[in-house]
Amino acid sequence: MFTRKIIRIDEEKCDGCGECVPACHEGAIKIVNGKAKLVNERYCDGLGACLGECPQGAITIEEREAAAFDEKAVAHHLESLNSAQVTNRPMDFPSFNPPPACPSSLSRAVVKDRPSVNNPSPASGPALGLRNWPIQLMLAPTEAPYFDNAELVIAADCVGFAFASFDKDILSGKCLLIACPKLDKVDYYRAKLTEIFQRNTITKVTIAFMEVPCCFGLVYLVSEALARSGKEIPVGKIKLGIQGDILENSVLPLTPGGIR
């Protein structure tokens, strides 16, 4: 060991939002028990790309004795992470597309211009409501006609209930996928989103998530999936408050490695 620059994470300040995780290109940071942790000293280059992403100012650079930065170890670490996305799938879903025998997973577009009991004379303008089925990311196909040249909303499960005008202000005219980064199988979702981006001509992605720290994991998921897909797709980020208000509505910058 020798003295060099390396990050320091103040656990008292860290709220576990996870914004530092995708900012670290070496995969040196991970959220563990609601706090950001340095996975391994050898993975940290000490350049501090993660500093500007921490809204709490919990990450700083210090000089201390530490293991040397190891590019080969980082490459092996990132390769292991990539492999885990593909191999760590639920045992009851051996492939991304569930068997079509289950009606809940039968892929279909939802037509909005047909008369119905509740809407005998459909009005012109953007169609409200769902345009695709299924919407749960676990059940959704990786390739479907309704994804072609479509804008895609990827929303946390709670968003549609917390934001009263979600249908009109966020979903209108777009396809929808929902997921929970806290309770669902994150590695499976990351790999599945990667394949969805690769197989379809999606024109824009909007991520809608709640203000609670764990929900930011949805932004992290999309960021990693997009980077792995090799696609450059414009991405918008909408943070919703528990009181039903929009706390943030921004566009994420594109980089050669995806969105950061």
Model description:
- Helices cover 22% and strands 24% of the residues.
- The chain has 260 residues and is of the alpha/beta class.
- The chain folds into 2 domains: 2-86, Alpha-Beta Plaits; 92-105 and 127-259, Rossmann fold.
- β2 and β3 (35-38) form a beta hairpin.
- α5 (186-199) packs across α6.
- It is globular and about 60 Å long.
- It starts with a strand and ends with a strand.
- Mean pLDDT is 81; it is low at 85-94 and 255-260.
SSE map:
Layout lengths: L1 E8 L10 H4 L5 E4 L2 E4 L20 E8 L4 H17 L20 E2 L22 E2 L17 E6 L2 H4 L3 H6 L3 E5 L6 H14 L4 E7 L6 H13 L5 E6 L5 E7 L1 E2 L2 E2 L1
Parallel strand pairs: 7-8, 7-9, 9-10
Antiparallel strand pairs: 1-4, 2-3, 5-6, 10-11, 12-13
Helix pairs in contact: 2-5, 5-6
Sketch the topology as an H/E string, one letter per element: EHEEEHEEEHHEHEHEEEE
Distance between the termini: 32 Å
The share of residues in extended strands comes to: 15-25%
* Distinct helical segment count: 6
Outline the low-pLDDT stretches.
85-94, 255-260
CATH fold-level name of the largest domain: Rossmann fold
Helical content class:
10-25%
The radius of gyration computed from the alpha-carbon positions, rounded to a whole number of angstroms, is: 20 Å
- β-strand number: 13
Q: Can you give the mean pLDDT?
A: 81
Domain module tally: 2
**Which CATH-level-2 architecture of the largest domain?**
3-Layer(aba) Sandwich
Judged by helices, strands and strand pairing, the structural class is alpha/beta
Shape: globular
* CATH secondary-structure class of the largest domain: Alpha Beta
Summarize the main sheet.
Answer: 5 strands, mixed
Strand order of the largest sheet: 8-7-9-10-11
